[in-house]
Amino acid sequence: MTIADAEPTAAPVPSQSTYQSRVADYWNAEENPVNLELGKIDDLYHHHYGIGEADWSVLDPTDAADVTDPTDPSSPADRQERITTELHRLEQAQADLLASHLGPLTPADRVFDAGCGRGGGSVVAHLRYGCHADGVTISRKQADFAAEQARKRHIDDKVRYHHLNMLDTGLPSGAYAASWNNESTMYVELDLLFAEHARLLRRGGRYVTITGCYNDTYGRASREVSLINAHYICDIHPRSEYFRAMARHRLVPTHVEDLTAAATPYWQLRKQADHLVTGIEETFLTAYGNGSFQYLLIVADRV
Question: Following DSSP, what letter does each residue of 4-26 receive, concatenated?
């Protein structure tokens, strides 16, 4: 299959619900510094959170004589740059972890990035495996931005982005060796989403998601989960529904990892990044701490 063979057959404008149109409007208008400033470091723009232990020395002032409180916003400007760089490093670690579970892949393989945002995940997968990648987003602005980044990197012959609905892409059935969602499952119905992944993946293909979900053992969605939903106009699913929906669509989990503890330092550091905070940081930390919200990695094979 050539790159041209993967052109979608669906209508140029995605068929979408009123809610999905609101989501598209949100991302078409979004200019959040926490997404843009981090991406400017190396032109890898991610729309997800980070994992791993943070380097807390980035909070230190350049010269201890300048300020006595390292969390004081009057600290030197390069402190902001160090924090921004460290947050991006943690986000890149998350992207690398997801990509590491897609393989083994070859340069001849195709992968599908569902809800690709500004395109960082597709680039990471291509750089790691040399594979072809198709990213799909419901936001025209994001698709155009990601395509321009691929052109600048001279990889647009292998990494392409489409303004399409990830629930109904029109991309060729059985053409993909791997596919994923990185923090985008909470915007769609899981049955519709996994049906499309099962259609696109070849038998034995690999599906990976990293996602926030609410903990069923806690009961109903907590207040914190409701606040996160309102902040991102999303609908976070219960943990158990992922596994039920996967089973209904020939996706068999082979690896599940709770990344909640690994994600906590990212939020602790971001909370102190005065130039990047969005106001939702403490809510995430509370939800992680009380156990009502979890950050999961799920790897599944298409059977």
Answer: GGG---S-SSPP--HHHHHHHHH
Q: Which residues pair with 182 in a beta bridge?
A: 210
DSSP reduced 3-state for 190:
helix
82-113 tens-digit pLDDT: 999 999 999 999 999 999 999 899 999 999 99
132-137 vs 110-114, strand pairing mode: parallel
- H or E stretch covering 79: helix 77-100
The pLDDT value given to residue 10: 46
pLDDT in tens, 36-49: 888 888 989 998 99
DSSP state for residue 172 in the 8-state scheme: P
Residue 259 in contact with residue 49, Cβ under 8 Å?
A: no
- Hey, what domains does the chain have and what are their CATH numbers? 9-302 (3.40.50.150)
CA distance 6 to 2: 7
CA distance 194 to 175: 16
- Half-sphere exposure of 56 toward its Cβ, with a 13 Å CA cutoff? 6
- Cα-Cα-Cα-Cα torsion 265, 96, 186, 214, nearest 10 degrees, comes to -40
| CB neighbourhood size of 288 (10 A) | 20
- The values of phi and psi at residue 203, to 5°, are -60, 130
State the angle between helix axes of 281-290 and 223-232 in degrees (0 to 180), rounded to the nearest 10.
150
Residue showing tokens 């696109």: 200
User: Looking at residue 25, what is its pLDDT?
Assistant: 92
Q: Is the omega angle on the peptide bond into residue 104 within 30 degrees of 0, that is, cis? A: yes
Cβ–Cβ under 8 Å, residues 183 and 212: yes
pTM of the full predicted structure? Answer: 0.90
* Alpha-carbon span 218 to 197, nearest angstrom: 29
